[in-house]
Specification:
Elements lengths: L1 E5 L3 H14 L4 E6 L2 H10 L5 E4 L4 H4 L2
Parallel strand pairs: 1-2, 1-3
């Protein structure tokens, strides 16, 4: 199963990646993204993962 993580706080993103990989060694985090814009671009250019884990309060959105 392939995952991406969208999280703007690096320690949280790395912690989440570690948790996912510990749950099942076959789980693969294919990308860790920090911004909404970067995530939109990634989705346009890549095959979609099975699961997206996303922060619900990205700093980029708070500034809008």
């Amino acid at each position: 199963m392939k995952f991406i993580i969208i999280e703007d706080e690096k320690p949280n993103a790395h912690r989440l990646r570690k948790i996912v990989e510990q749950i099942d060694p076959s789980f693969e985090v294919v990308e860790m993204l920090e911004t909404v814009a970067g995530s939109v671009l990634w989705f346009k250019q890549n095959q979609h993962p099975d699961i997206v884990l996303m922060d619900i309060r990205l700093a980029e959105w708070i500034k809008l």
